[in-house]
Design a protein that fits this description.
- By secondary structure, the chain is of the alpha+beta class.
- It is elongated and about 110 Å long.
Amino acid sequence: MLKPIVVICVTLASGAVLADEWFEEERREREEREERHREEKREDERRKEQEAHRRELERQEQELKAKHVEAAREESRQALRSVPRMKKEAKGATRMWHEGLSADHFAIIRNYVEAGFRISTIAFTPDGKGIVLVWGKNAVHARGAPKALVDELSKVAQRAEEIRSVVFTPTGGWAFIHAERSIMWSNEGIAAAFPAAAQRASDDGGKLHHLAFSRDGYLIVFGRNYREASGVPSALVVSVDNLSGGLAKLHSVSIRADGEWVASVQGAYSAHSSNLPPKLRALLDESARIDRELTLVVLHPNGGWVALAQN
């Protein structure tokens, strides 16, 4: 009779072991669930922190951009206030069209347009970040331009010489016309044949009008629309040659590093390459149709542009 009792005791002991294992498994699963929940909560908090950080960075970026634009506006306002002696054109005499300009470049140009000053030159640095604007005879607003250029422009202005056609080369050089028959250029970033061509143009005896640079060449327009040219689009050279003899005044010439170009001509005419931005092409076509002269058209290195119609 003792044997069955032993068997029962063994069976009960085995059941207790199984129950302990089950409870242990449940505990582990519960702890794993709790740990997953805590990890999900931590991940959610990280995402919220990252989103808050991203929003803060965006806010700071917008704030910085606003300060940068305001600084550009104030800079041009200060420059305008410093030359009260200059005669202004009639209010509303200048119209401006543009596309793809940075906010600070737009602010600078707009301030001079709204102030009524006649702008003769707008030049953008090859990286698209700097600008040189010339208005009147020799008043210059430069921002982000090479110091050597700014220094030379200041010297010319102090001598009361006229400044016209400030240009940058795609390779980082610069040049400008002063005193009607002289050209000054940088030591670097200029085509090797340019100095000799500049000398020939100066020796011709007529006024120097325009400079333009392609990636590998240059264009100098002087006298009655005669030219020295090398390495620039042939269609542009033909367009200038068609004006030789002074048939019409060439208002402006602009060449972009990729070879696109535009020339504005007296009588509301223009000549240009085939792949200009559609809005600019539409403006050129409309201007020819309604007899509106664009006195300055400048291509921006980054694909934008600005055009002015000045009475």
